[in-house]
């Protein structure tokens, strides 16, 4: 009887998602819906004013920031694997590097907006165009979520430094990794979306 009960408890632990993990996934779904709406709006607006749609090259720093954010996914995953192996020193190093790369990504995004301004692409005003406005809004909202991701990484790092992240306690770093990977993939999607749709579909 006890054996059957233990098997049932183990199966329940496997099939039941941690409430906090569920919240993370719920947040991710809401972000997906937000950016799906924005990119759909981009395509519809572009179709409405195709002749007046401003065509411009993406800032060179957007290319480099894409490389940086992909590298940050590698270091984030390294930290997670190290946690599962109970290699706490590597966990801390991986999280610190991820945090640094995330900050570098944000700085490069801001500088990329500066390159847009230099190229005559403005967010608002008489010289603005919906094409430029969409780029600023979409990339700006992504940057805002990156800030949220950095806060999550920082909290995970603090927990690791307090010996609360290890092989028997990986929930926090697992959730952090999931959210960070999602933000990285979201930027890659947005980057290629801008590349593909900047000239229209004709």
Q: Can you give me a brief rundown of this structure?
A:
It contains six helices and no strands. It has about 200 residues and is mainly alpha-helical.
Give the helix/strand layout.
Blueprint: H1 2-15, H2 19-48, H3 60-84, H4 88-118, H5 130-161, H6 171-197
3D architecture notes:
It is built from 6 helices and no strands. The protein has 202 residues and is mostly helical. The protein is elongated, with a radius of gyration of 21 Å. Residues 1-15 have low confidence and may be disordered.
Order of secondary-structure elements: HHHHHH
Task: Outline the biggest β-sheet.
Answer: none
Total helices: the number is 6
- CA-CA gap between termini: 69 Å
CA radius of gyration: 21 Å
What is the helical fraction, as a range of percent? over 70%
Feature tags:
202 residues; mainly alpha; 6 helices; 79% helix; disordered N terminus
